[in-house]
Amino acid sequence: MATRLVMELCGGTPSENVVVGKVFGDDRVIDFPLTEVKRLAGIDVPLPEMKLILSRLGFMMAGPGPVVKVAAPSWRSDVHGKADIVEEIVRIVGVDKVPMTAVRAWRSAAQADPHRDPAAHPPRQARARRARHGRGG
Hints:
Layout lengths: L1 H9 L18 E5 L2 H6 L5 H10 L3 E3 L4 E5 L10 H12 L15 H4 L10 H10 L5
Antiparallel strand pairs: 1-3, 2-3
């Protein structure tokens, strides 16, 4: 109908239909361990609540657990793996429910406490620090 209207108003001839992208298939079905929400987000979400959340978002879930099959809806091309499913569940349950945890230290003790070793500061930070504390150049 839209093509006919465009042709009436503008003229021209329509081209053949072109389909791009790949068809929704098995690669969109993700094996999802139910423990993944607890492992990645630190919150317990019961299976019935997970099913309700995902179904309202257009996902399909099958299986009793501990690993279920989750099919992402065709319009959600951004969902590729388990972490994406956890993200969807956490978004609905509430990010405020995710417990705060400390990030593991990956730096040396001197870098973790720059006051212990002033050389641990990058030059620009060291200059700014000295200026704030009135020690000059």
